[in-house]
Here is the input.
Amino acid sequence: MRTVLCPGSFDPVTNGHMDIIRRAAAQFERVIVLVAINATKPGLFAPEERVKLLQRCLTDVPNAEVRSFAGLTALYAKQTGASAIVKGLRAMSDFDYEFQQALTNRQLNPAVETIFMSASGESMYLSSGMVKQVCSLGGDVSSFVPPEALPDVLARLRPQDKQ
Ligand code: ADP
Here is the structure.
């Protein structure tokens, strides 16, 4: 059984993340969506909130499970026997960073492969940062985040609006 990891901050989950996770789940037997815990960056949602939001969005993907981890993705892969890390690539601007990450992860764990999937046309401009910016300034983000996560995103970023 091939297990792969889809790591990220997911703060909050976007339709771009969902696209990559669903496509990974169609290719591999088991997908672990790994919420990276960064103690120096508290974020909009706490890691356990991000896990719950992702779980709610992934109820129809039985071979995807959500975990959080405070350490290195390459070491988590070793612990879980994951054979690959699946990452989404939006534009060339993602490439430098992702390439560096992939080489570092291979150094740390030569058994783990990094697999890149290209973003879908409709979500290639999407990022969690963009969602936070647009939503906090009053814009409509309903086409950027999964419907299961939208109420929480609105409640957190626009608490003044009556939901
Ligand atoms: P990080 O903060 O660690 O970059 P993110 O939560 O932003 O994590 O993203 C996690 C993963 O999802 C990364 O592989 C990223 O490239 C991918 N990703 C993010 N947004 C999109 C998108 N719109 N389309 C495709 N992949 C995406």
Remarks:
- The chain has a mean pLDDT of 95.
